[in-house]
Structure of Diaminopimelate decarboxylase:
Amino acid sequence: MSDLLSLFPSGSRLDGDGTVVVGGCRADDLAAEFGTPVLVVAEQALRARAREYRDELAARRPGSRVVFASKAFPCTAVQRVMVEEGLGLDVAGGGEILTALKAGVDPGLIVLHGNAKSDEEIALAVEHGIGLVVVDNADDVDRLEATGRPQDVLVRIIPGVTADTHAHVLTGHAGSKFGLAPADAAALIRRIEHSPRLRMRGLHVHVGSQILDVEPFAESVAPIARLGEFEIYDLGGGLGARYTWADKPPSVASYLDALIGAAKQHLPASAQLIIEPGRSMVCTAATTIYRVTTVKRGAITFVAVDGGMGDNLEVALFEQRFEAGIVGRFDGPGLESVTVVGRHCESGDVLVDGVPLSEPAVGDLLAIPATGAYCYTMANNYNGNRRIPVVLANEGVPRLVVRRETWDDLMARDVD
Ligand SMILES: *Cc1c(COP(=O)(O)O)cnc(C)c1O
C-alpha cells in the first residue's frame, strides 16, 4: 500500500499511536468532540493553496485576479479564508452570494455565474453591487436591463474544447448548456455594447472540472480571441485535484504556464485576466471522518459507515475514486481488500470500491481524504440524513463552522 498520508491535507501526520492528525487535531479527538461523520478542513493547507494560486498568477501576469469558485465549498468560513488571502469570489446562486457577503468580500470582487439565473438572483446581485455578472444567454440581458441599474458584464463563450474528464463535468464542448457559441455570442455582445445600462467588459470561458492535463485550458483561449478585444478575460477553473494514487494533476505553476502562455499569445497584453479555481483549491485540504457501523463478510467484505452519499455524492455522480484508511491503522496489520459503503438505500451508495483496510471492526473510525471539493456542496437529506458538520482545524485548535443538522432543522421545513 502506498502512503495514504500523502493524500491528506499538507501538514497532516501520524501521532505516536498511528492516529492521523489533521490541522494539528487528532481524528479521534475530533470525532469525540463533534461526532461522526465530520468534515474536517485543515485551515493552513487551505491558506497555503490560496496563496500558491495568488502568487503564481501574480508572477506571470501582474494585475490579474484569482476568484475562488465558491460552489466547490460554499460556506462562509471557507469563503472568508479566501477573502483574507486576497482572493475574490465566484458565485453561482443566491445562497452563495449571501455567504460570500457574510464572509466580508468586497462585492466588487464577486463574479456571478449561472445558465438559468432567476429574477431574484439578478436583483440580489445588482442590489449588492456585484462586480461582474457573466451573461450566459439573451434572457440574462433582458433581466439585467429590467433592473434599471448599471452593471458590468462578461459574456460566456463555448470554446468548443473537450477534455479527458467525466462527461458530467465537461462544460466547454460544442453542445454545452453553458454559454454561447462564438457566432451566437457576437450578436449578443453588440446588443450589450449598445445597452444604456450594461457595460460590456469582457469574455468568459470554462472548459470543465477535474481536468488532469493542461492542453484543454490552453486550447480554450484562441476561440475567444477571435471575438474582438476586451478589457477582461475570465478563463475559468477546472484544474484537477489528487484524490488517489493514480492522479497526477499538473501543478498550479505548470497549469498557469500553459494558460497564461496562451493568453499572452492570443489576448491583448493590457487585458486583465481572471481565473476561477474551485476543486483544486479545496479538495485536498479536507478529510471526512466516519464511524464503522457494520462489517459484513461474504464474497465481498462490505464495511458500512455512518455516512455515504448524503455527504459525498462525488462517487455516485462522477464515479470519483477515493481512498480510505482505518484511523490508527493505515498501514496494517492485516490489510484486506473491502468495499466501503454508506448507509443509504442505493446500491450506488459506495464510497470506495475495493480498498485495503486493516481489520475493520464496528466502532472503528474511518478517514477518507480529499473530500474538500463539492462534498459539502452536494450534501443532502436522503433517508432523513442530517447534513454533517464542518470543522476548521488550525494548529491544534478545532472550530465548528457549520453545525450538524438537527431533527428539529429537518422538521422545521415540513410544515404540514
Ligand atoms: C464550477 C466552475 C468553476 C470551478 O471549477 P473547478 O473544477 O471546481 O475548478 C469555475 N468557473 C465556473 C463558471 C464554474 O461553473
The first helix runs from residue 27 to 34. The longest strand covers residues 286-296. The pocket of pyridoxal-5'-phosphate is lined by residues 69, 71-72, 90, 92, 113, 206, 209, 236-239, 276-280 (CB under 6 Å).
